[in-house]
């Protein structure tokens, strides 16, 4: 995966980054509030020795730099800490005093700095003053020769003791910045990890790669699609309707040398929108002037008649068992050249019925009665009905819902089709998240259609009672029954 791929993962899981940044800032704020303020008191010593010439001065400087390192250890020694505690009642033990002392020796110089950190500003200053006095006394005592002559090394206080007026810790700004940065890094890592570990189908490129077939369309998600799934009325000018029209164009030109006239629409799992896709694809083809026949071959959970507002009590099942002629149950939908064959009664043996010779003969007859036959089938991984129907069609269209189906499930569905030599025409990513820029481009360029009378009857009773619809249906059924 390239850098852009990782950035897309972070963008997709932006909420993880936001949560971790807020947690980092909250933790930093909590630590800052709960941490007691600490003050620093410091004192700087200058170590010197008499010199008699340039050579002596150079050698003396090297000698003093070595001694400064030893004095740094002496400042944190138990002996000095005990003398500080004994001289001034600070309310601290020798170990506590020693733990508060930090020394710094500037490289290449003979300066030695001692810093004491304490939560009590006054105590920090008092401890530093006592430390400076006891340290100079201890050095003088240690460096004085046994004969009582002047010591060769002299310690002078050149800065301090002084204490900071403001606490040196905690530092709210620094803590918040560090907390935010740590939260950001953690969030980016978790977002990338979640994206890499996510096995669900997230984009069209992945769907095309898993199925090994062309991506014929990406149908955008719309909140109103659940209550109004068909691309009619106000939905006919939506971005979803335009995406279905693009699918119609791609489907017609996916193979110009061997066009598919009988198309099985299926999916890996139920609930991915295959029935809606079959209905809308048939509507879009009929809008372009094709004579389209939509068959509901999902005999276990038929939904085509419900979506189109038709009577589905008698249909494909009754034709296959020989109870009725196909011309008696095919229904015209709306004012378009769209015919619909509902599923009919639910049979006890759907797969056997769909794989029978009657089904094969029916598809041969219907192929000559319409320009394009669209068949809504059952999900591939649930039952074998979808594969049985797809074998008898010219090709299959695989519908996958974004963010719901895993890559392994899509691969298994594609394998179920290829294992029986079904021609996979292409795949469709349904309920896809479209970039705002793309949605804006369509909204800015779409054609505003003036309101017109609905082309679909208001209810099922109206559909059955409409005089014009009944007349058209009778004429069409007479032609199909010949």
UniProtKB/TrEMBL annotation:
<dbReference type="InterPro" id="IPR003856">
    <property type="entry name" value="LPS_length_determ_N"/>
</dbReference>
<dbReference type="InterPro" id="IPR025669">
    <property type="entry name" value="AAA_dom"/>
</dbReference>
<keyword id="KW-0547">Nucleotide-binding</keyword>
<dbReference type="GO" id="GO:0004715">
    <property type="term" value="F:non-membrane spanning protein tyrosine kinase activity"/>
</dbReference>
<dbReference type="InterPro" id="IPR027417">
    <property type="entry name" value="P-loop_NTPase"/>
</dbReference>
<dbReference type="GO" id="GO:0005886">
    <property type="term" value="C:plasma membrane"/>
</dbReference>
<feature type="region of interest" description="Disordered">
    <location>
        <begin position="456"/>
        <end position="482"/>
    </location>
</feature>
<dbReference type="InterPro" id="IPR050445">
    <property type="entry name" value="Bact_polysacc_biosynth/exp"/>
</dbReference>
<dbReference type="Pfam" id="PF13614">
    <property type="entry name" value="AAA_31"/>
</dbReference>
<feature type="domain" description="AAA">
    <location>
        <begin position="261"/>
        <end position="404"/>
    </location>
</feature>
<comment type="similarity">
    <text>Belongs to the etk/wzc family.</text>
</comment>
<keyword id="KW-1003">Cell membrane</keyword>
<protein>
    <submittedName>
        <fullName>Capsular exopolysaccharide family</fullName>
        <ecNumber>2.7.10.2</ecNumber>
    </submittedName>
</protein>
<feature type="domain" description="Polysaccharide chain length determinant N-terminal">
    <location>
        <begin position="1"/>
        <end position="87"/>
    </location>
</feature>
<keyword id="KW-0812">Transmembrane</keyword>
<keyword id="KW-0418">Kinase</keyword>
<dbReference type="Pfam" id="PF02706">
    <property type="entry name" value="Wzz"/>
</dbReference>
<feature type="transmembrane region" description="Helical">
    <location>
        <begin position="176"/>
        <end position="197"/>
    </location>
</feature>
<keyword id="KW-0472">Membrane</keyword>
<keyword id="KW-0067">ATP-binding</keyword>
<feature type="transmembrane region" description="Helical">
    <location>
        <begin position="12"/>
        <end position="33"/>
    </location>
</feature>
<comment type="similarity">
    <text>Belongs to the CpsC/CapA family.</text>
</comment>
<keyword id="KW-1133">Transmembrane helix</keyword>
<keyword id="KW-0829">Tyrosine-protein kinase</keyword>
<dbReference type="InterPro" id="IPR005702">
    <property type="entry name" value="Wzc-like_C"/>
</dbReference>
<dbReference type="GO" id="GO:0005524">
    <property type="term" value="F:ATP binding"/>
</dbReference>
<keyword id="KW-0997">Cell inner membrane</keyword>
<keyword id="KW-0808">Transferase</keyword>
């Amino acid at each position: 995966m390239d850098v852009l791929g990782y950035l897309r993962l972070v963008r997709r899981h932006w909420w993880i980054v936001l949560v971790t940044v807020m947690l980092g800032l909250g933790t930093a704020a909590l630590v800052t509030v709960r941490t007691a303020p600490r003050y620093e008191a410091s004192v700087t010593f200058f170590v010197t020795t008499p010199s008699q010439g340039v050579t002596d001065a150079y050698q003396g400087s090297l000698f003093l730099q070595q001694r400064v390192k030893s004095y740094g250890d002496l400042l944190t020694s138990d002996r000095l800490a005990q003398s500080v505690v004994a001289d001034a009642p600070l309310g601290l033990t020798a170990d506590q005093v020693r733990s508060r002392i930090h020394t710094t020796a500037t490289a290449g110089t003979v300066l030695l700095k001692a810093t004491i950190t304490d939560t009590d500003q006054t105590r920090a200053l008092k401890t530093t003053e006592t430390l400076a006095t006891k340290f100079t006394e201890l050095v003088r005592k240690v460096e004085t020769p046994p004969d009582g002559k002047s010591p060769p090394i002299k310690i002078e206080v050149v800065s301090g003791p002084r204490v900071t007026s403001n606490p040196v810790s905690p530092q709210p700004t620094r803590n918040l910045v560090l907390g935010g940065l740590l939260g950001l890094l953690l969030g980016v890592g978790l977002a990338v990890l979640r994206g890499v570990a996510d096995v669900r189908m997230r984009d069209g490129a992945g769907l095309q790669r898993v199925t090994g077939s062309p991506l014929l369309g990406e149908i955008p998600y719309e909140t109103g699609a659940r209550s109004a799934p068909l691309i009619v009325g106000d939905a006919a000018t939506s971005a979803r309707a335009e995406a279905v029209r693009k699918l119609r164009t791609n489907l017609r030109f996916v193979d110009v040398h061997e066009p598919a006239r009988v198309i099985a629409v299926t999916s890996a799992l139920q609930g991915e929108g295959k029935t809606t896709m079959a209905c809308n694809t048939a509507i879009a083809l009929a809008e372009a002037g094709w004579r389209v026949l939509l068959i509901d071959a999902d005999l276990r959970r038929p939904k085509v008649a419900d979506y189109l507002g038709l009577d589905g009590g008698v249909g494909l099942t009754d034709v296959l068992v020989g109870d009725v002629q196909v011309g008696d149950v095919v229904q015209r939908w709306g004012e378009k050249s769209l015919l619909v064959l509902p599923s009919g009664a639910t049979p006890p043996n759907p797969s056997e019925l769909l794989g029978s010779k009657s089904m094969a003969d029916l598809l041969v007859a219907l192929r000559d009665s319409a320009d394009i036959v669209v068949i809504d089938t059952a999900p591939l991984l649930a039952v074998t009905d979808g594969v049985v129907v797809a074998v008898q069609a010219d090709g299959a269209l695989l519908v996958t819902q974004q963010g719901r189906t895993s890559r392994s499930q899509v691969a298994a569905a594609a394998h179920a089709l290829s294992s029986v030599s079904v021609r996979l025409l292409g795949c469709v990513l349904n309920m896809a998240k479209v970039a705002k820029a793309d949605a804006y481009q369509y909204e800015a360029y779409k054609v505003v259609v003036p309101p017109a009378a609905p082309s679909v009857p208001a209810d099922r009773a109206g559909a059955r009672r409409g005089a014009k619809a009944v007349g058209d249906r009778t004429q069409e059924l007479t032609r199909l029954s010949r």
